[in-house]
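Handoff note, outgoing to incoming analyst
You'll be picking up this chain. Sequence as last confirmed:
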Amino acid sequence: QVQLVESGGGLVQAGGSLRLSCAASGRSFSSYTMGWFRQAPGKERESVARISRSGSSKYYADSVNGRFTISRDNAKKVVYLQMNSLKSEDTAVYYCAAGSGGDYANEYDYWGQGTQVTVSS
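Most recent structure output, in case you need it:
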C-alpha cells in the first residue's frame, strides 16, 4: 500500500511558476513509476509527466514539454512537478499516481486526492 498526498497548488498568473509535491507513505516507493495527471472541468484525466523508478527516465506530454519538469527523491519518498511558463490551459486538478507506468490512468494503482492549479490570464 502507498498513500499519496499532493501539495503546492494554488492561483498563479499566466507566465508564473508553481512546484507541486507528492509525499508518499508506505513501503516500496522506489519500486513504482510515478506519474502526474491532470483533469480540467468537463475533460478526461490526462497524463502530464511520469518518471521511472530510479528517476533516470522521464516522459512529458507534448503540451507541457519544455515547461514542466518531473523529479523524485526516493530517500524522502517525494515526487515533484516544477511548472514554469504556466498558461490558462494548465488550469486543472493535478494528481500524482504510483504504478507500473504508462500514459493511461488504469496503469496506476495508487492516487493522491489532487491539488487545484488555477492559472489566471
